[in-house]
Write a structure and sequence with these properties.
With about 160 residues, this protein is of the alpha/beta class. The protein has one domain: Carbamate kinase, CATH 3.40.1160.10. Helices cover about 45% and strands about 20% of the residues. The chain contains five helices and eight strands; from the N terminus they run βαβααβββαβββα. Strands 1-2-6-3 form a four-stranded parallel beta sheet, sandwiched between helices. β4 and β5 form a beta hairpin. α1 packs across α3 and α2 packs antiparallel against α3. The longest helix has 25 residues. The radius of gyration is 15 Å and the shape is globular.
Length: about 160
């Protein structure tokens, strides 16, 4: 069975209609007999909105706390997409970066992936579960949330594809 890794950016999941369209793409790929893992970004300009809100409260906020805040955008996207796929009757599981096994350094806001433990992802794929992973994020050795910086979701998708 083939594994197809797909990556969907913020514009692709910017609203409910687009989330439904992405769910159709993923389920079509699954129906063709493939295992599917999708890496997803935050919706549209949601990350920018979160940065604005943070700056209203504390323009000099720590990078660690910004990572915790900014990673919320991807969490929302993966849950919405998983719900859309679930509604269609498919087995699906959303995972945050740490749940998908991303271990990074502690360079908050621009972390580098040190290791990916793909065991959990592989176990779910073996059950023919569609996996939806939050791009752009991981955890460091202290279990603190980290983000990968610009292009982080693309990096996440490539790293997972290579690791699997």
């Amino acid at each position: 069975m083939n594994l197809i890794v797909q990556k969907f950016g913020g514009t692709s999941v910017a609203n409910a209609e687009r989330v439904e369209h992405v769910a159709d793409i993923i389920t079509r790929t699954y129906d063709q007999g493939n295992n599917v893992l999708a890496v997803v970004s935050a919706q549209g300009k949601f990350t920018d909105v979160l940065v604005e809100k943070a700056n209203e409260i504390n323009p000099k906020g720590s990078r660690r706390e910004m990572d915790v805040l900014l990673s919320a955008g991807e969490q929302i996207s993966i849950a919405l997409l998983a719900l859309a796929i679930e509604k269609r009757g498919y087995p699906v599981k959303s995972m945050l970066g740490w749940q998908a096994g991303f271990l990074t350094d502690s360079n908050h806001s621009n972390a580098r992936i040190r290791k990916i433990n793909t065991e959990r992802v592989q176990n779910e794929l073996a059950k023919r579960t569609i996996i939806i992973v939050a791009g752009f994020q991981g955890v460091d050795r202290y279990d603190d949330m980290t983000t990968l910086g610009r292009g982080g979701s693309d990096t996440s998708a490539v790293a997972l594809a290579a690791g699997l």
